[in-house]
């Protein structure tokens, strides 16, 4: 076990875990930030997407030892009252079905829009293609992203 000082959603946190512990489990088990979901555990589905230094990353394959000193944002830290423009668009278009993958979808969409505020359909497809949704909400996800981009 080792002590790591982390910056999560603007707050300093300290955890005492094995250095290879994935951030997904640090967030969920150590810090009780359970909005970030476990889907596949092997960086293939996107359910566990968080922001590391503003970039979308898959927390299931991100060891805690690799993030010290870099700011992390989770779905809980995106806005005060779920009122980030992307979250509002998600609600207005009623994107989720079961909802399980949606935190990861939103975190990836926010990273895309931060980098490219007006993405084309092709750019949305390319950016979001690795975030899997078993309910097939892809059309509404694209609509919500375009609503924010418009
Ligand atoms: Fe991390 Fe699937 S749980 S990508």
Automatic annotation (TrEMBL):
<dbReference type="Pfam" id="PF00111">
    <property type="entry name" value="Fer2"/>
</dbReference>
<dbReference type="Pfam" id="PF01799">
    <property type="entry name" value="Fer2_2"/>
</dbReference>
<feature type="domain" description="2Fe-2S ferredoxin-type">
    <location>
        <begin position="2"/>
        <end position="78"/>
    </location>
</feature>
<keyword id="KW-0560">Oxidoreductase</keyword>
<keyword id="KW-0411">Iron-sulfur</keyword>
<dbReference type="InterPro" id="IPR012675">
    <property type="entry name" value="Beta-grasp_dom_sf"/>
</dbReference>
<dbReference type="InterPro" id="IPR036884">
    <property type="entry name" value="2Fe-2S-bd_dom_sf"/>
</dbReference>
<keyword id="KW-0479">Metal-binding</keyword>
<keyword id="KW-0408">Iron</keyword>
<dbReference type="InterPro" id="IPR036010">
    <property type="entry name" value="2Fe-2S_ferredoxin-like_sf"/>
</dbReference>
<protein>
    <submittedName>
        <fullName>(2Fe-2S)-binding protein</fullName>
    </submittedName>
</protein>
<dbReference type="InterPro" id="IPR002888">
    <property type="entry name" value="2Fe-2S-bd"/>
</dbReference>
<dbReference type="InterPro" id="IPR051452">
    <property type="entry name" value="Diverse_Oxidoreductases"/>
</dbReference>
<dbReference type="InterPro" id="IPR001041">
    <property type="entry name" value="2Fe-2S_ferredoxin-type"/>
</dbReference>
<keyword id="KW-0001">2Fe-2S</keyword>
<dbReference type="InterPro" id="IPR006058">
    <property type="entry name" value="2Fe2S_fd_BS"/>
</dbReference>
């Amino acid at each position: 076990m080792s002590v790591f000082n982390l910056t999560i959603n603007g707050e300093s946190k300290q955890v005492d875990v094995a250095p290879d512990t994935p951030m997904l489990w640090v967030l969920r088990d150590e810090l009780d930030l359970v909005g970030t979901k476990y889907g596949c555990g092997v960086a293939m589905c996107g359910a566990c997407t968080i922001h590391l230094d503003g970039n979308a990353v898959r927390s299931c394959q991100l060891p805690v030892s690799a993030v010290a000193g870099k700011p992390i944002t989770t779905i809980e830290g995106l806005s005060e009252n779920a009122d980030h423009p992307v979250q509002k668009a998600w609600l207005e278009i009623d994107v989720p079905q079961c909802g399980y993958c949606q935190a990861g979808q939103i975190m990836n969409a926010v990273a895309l829009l931060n980098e490219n505020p007006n993405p084309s359909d092709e750019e949305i497809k390319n950016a979001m293609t690795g975030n899997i949704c078993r309910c097939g909400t892809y059309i509404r996800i694209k609509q919500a992203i375009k609503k924010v981009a418009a």
